Amino acid sequence: MKSHLLFLWSPNPRPPPAQRVISEERSQCFRLLGSGPASCSLPILKNITKQICCCSRVGKAWGPACQRCPYFAS
C-alpha cells in the first residue's frame, strides 16, 4: 500500500490566527481600573503591547487614554 503526501504552497504564507500580532505599539499597562473615566492606577513599569497586557490578564486597562481591556475570551 502506497501513501501519498500533499503539500500546499502559498506565495504569501500567513501564520495561524493565534500567532498573528495585532499591534506592536507599546504603552503603559495598568493593573487597576477605577470607576471614573481615565482612572487607572498601578502601572506596570515596562511598556508592553495591548495584546500582552490584556490577553494575558496582566492588566485591566492599557494606553495613555486608560482604555479598558476587553473581557477575557471576548
Report on the structure:
With 74 residues, the protein is mainly β. The protein is 8% helix and 23% strand. It has one helix at 50-55, and strands at 26-27, 29-33, 40-43, 48-49, 61-62, 67-68. A 4-stranded antiparallel sheet has the order 3-2-5-6. A hairpin with a 4-residue loop joins strand 5 and strand 6. The longest helix is centred in the C-terminal third of the chain and has 6 residues, at 50-55. The protein is elongated. The termini are far apart. The model has no long low-confidence stretch (mean pLDDT 79).
Task: Sum this structure up briefly.
With 74 residues, the protein is mainly β. Helices cover 8% and strands 23% of the residues. The chain has one helix and six strands; from the N terminus they run ββββαββ.
What coarse outline follows from CA principal-axis ratios?
elongated
What is the number of E strands? 6
- Largest β-sheet summary: 4 strands, antiparallel
Instruction: Give the radius of gyration.
Output: 19 Å
Oligomer: single chain
Q: Please give the order of strands in the largest beta sheet.
A: 3-2-5-6
Distance between the termini: 47 Å
How much of the sequence lies in strands comes to 15-25%
Q: What structural category characterises the helix and strand content?
A: mainly beta
If helices are DSSP runs of H or I spanning 4 or more residues, what is the number of helices? 1
SSE topology string:
EEEEHEE
Q: Unreliable runs, pLDDT <50, ≥5 residues?
A: none
Range of helix content: under 10%
- What is the mean pLDDT? 79
